[in-house]
Structure formats: structure tokens, C-alpha cells
Amino acid sequence: EAPRPAEPPRISRAVRRPPQHSRAARASAREAMMKQGDGKEPEWDPTFEPVMKALLGKKGIKTKSASEVGRKKVDYFRGKDFKKFLLENETLLKKKCSAALAAALDGKAPADDKDVERIGNELIHGSFCYRAMYKPINPKSESGSDKKPKKWPDRLGRTPNQSFDCDGFYVITYEGGSGLQHFLLALIIAGVLLACMFPVWPMWAKVGIWYLSVIFLSVYFGLLILRMVVYTMFWVVGFDFWIFPNINDEYCGFLDSFQPLYSWEKRKDDALMLLVRFGSLAIAAVAIKQIAETHSLADVQDFVTSSYIDVLDWGVEKLTALPGSDKQALPSLEQLQNQKDLDDGNETNGTNATDWGNGSGGVA
């Protein structure tokens, strides 16, 4: 009988099980996705939700908007800002995010990059955010070696590798409470309805809106002119000085547009640029001298004031010329009573005159 071939030795493989808090986070993420599919509000993992609230709060990290490939506008943050926030806010994390620290770091505060990556991975597994990378419209034009990586890219795409990295970008999917969103939506709807009903607004409201619009545009363009004048003055002496440098940045929010208050940077110009700067200074000096000889500062002030008043009057005239603006308003109760008394008085006078005429004829 032929001997039976020996069976290969069995190798026992130890199965590595994920920690309990990771399974809970993934289960919470799956539940959140199911809730979103049903059209209901997602239920976020209560263990790590305070971390997202702290990140997106008033004292949290900086976020910006970008276009995601194949989707709509999204908000995102940078991994290095996330790392800086966790390492510099130990007291805040222990006070508001103690459950998250206990689940991810055994109750300790983040101390190095590995601790930051653990918390970041928990947020990704809980569907609070996901990792993305810069996706240019034309990759060939962005592939040059002299191209510097963008600090805040304006176009992102989801990455296959969803492990946390301090050098990456992370799109925020956490929505938080919807009460504020519903309130803002109600304000938008009310604003649209009021705008559609503009033709039936009272005249004082139309004129008030016109005045507010002119004041707003005057302040805005006045600020732009002031910025340009100040920038030109510092540019001549070799500095780039901007007041509100982000005021026209389309990727900044309303509050971020006014931060920082100013930016200051010394220029590194060559000899040709120095010649251009001093030539511009000479031309500006000659122009100012010629204007000062023909016009005074009071003349310029009178011209600006009269032009401003003319613009306001022009808008009021246009509003009063709109169809329906010249319709006669309904008389008030007092006006009706005065008109009735006037008619009664005229009727009485007419009756007395008739009686007097008849009496005179009888005597004759």
C-alpha cells in the first residue's frame, strides 16, 4: 500500500480584531448613512461629535469652501490646522471631549502626530469628514516642477486612501443641528417674497431701500479707492501694504473677508522696477501740482457733495415715475368728514340764495 502524502502543517493565524470603539464608530456611520437615505437627519456618534463641534466653533480651526469634482460646493479644513488645534487646546479637549479622549487615547490628551492621527481616523470612520486632494481642471498645466502646492485649493476630489494624514485636506460632512439652517432658509424665503412684492411697497420703503443701497455702494467703493491710494503710496517706497487684503476673495466667508486687517510685505524689485516706481512718483507729483493750481480742496468737496445729492434725487425721481406710484391714495376719515361738511355748507348757501331770490320777487 502506497504511503499517504503528509498533510501540510497548519499555520494558526491570529485574527486582529479592531477595538471596540472603532466598531461602534463604523456602526454609527452605517446608521447615519441609512438615516440620510431615508430623508431623515443623521444620528452622529455622540462620542466624537463634541470634537467636531469644538473644531467648527468660534475658537475652532479655519475652514474654506471649494468645488468637489462631480458634486457641489463643500467646506474643508487642513490636516495641519487640525493637528495644531489638538496639540494646543489640551484643557478644552479634556473639558468638552473627555469621552472621545477616553475612547481613542485612554483619556490622555494628544501629544504627538500618532495621537492626532488616531482621533482623525475616528472622525473619518464616523463619517464626520473624509480625506480629499487637489484636483486641477487641467492636470497637465499643474504638473510642472515649478508649481507650488496650493495652501487652500479651490477644487477637491475624494482620495481612495481614507487614512488620516496631517498634510491632507478633509471635507466636512458633519451638519450639526438643523435649527439654524431652517431659520436662515425662512429668512431667504421671506426676502425673496419681499423682493417680488417691491412694486406694492409704500413709497417711503422704496426710497429707504434706495438710500441704503447708495450708502452701501459708496462705502464699498470708497474703501476700494482708499485701499488703492494707500497701496500706491507704499508701493512707491518699496512695500506691498493692503488694507483688508481678503475683501474681494471669493473663497472667503463674510467674516473672513475682513481678516486680517492689513498685510505688509517688503518688495524685491530689480533696477527696472525701481525706475518705474520713481517715474510713477514724479508723474503723480506733477499731476497733483497742476490740479492744486486750478482747483481747491473745497471745490472738490462741493463737486462730490453735489454729485451725491444728484444721484439720490435721480433715484427718487425714477421711483416716483414707476407705474402705480402716481395713483391717488384713499382719503382718510378726517378728509371725508371735511369734504362732507364743505358739501353741506355749499348746499345750505345755495338754498338760502334761492329763498332770498323768491322773497325779493314777491315784494316786487
TrEMBL record:
Cleaved signal peptide residues: none
Places the protein is found: Endoplasmic reticulum membrane
Composition-biased stretches (Basic residues): 13-24
Residue spans of biased composition, Basic and acidic residues class: 28-43, 143-157
Transmembrane segments: 183-201, 207-226
GO biological-process terms attached to the record: post-translational protein targeting to membrane, translocation
Chain residue ranges for the region called Disordered: 1-46, 139-159, 337-364
Compositionally skewed regions (Polar residues) per UniProt: 347-357
Coiled-coil annotated residue ranges, if any: none
Cellular component GO terms, alphabetical: endoplasmic reticulum membrane
Membrane topology designation: Multi-pass membrane protein
Protein name per UniProt: Translocation protein SEC62
Species of provenance: Alexandrium catenella
Lineage: Eukaryota, Sar, Alveolata, Dinophyceae, Gonyaulacales
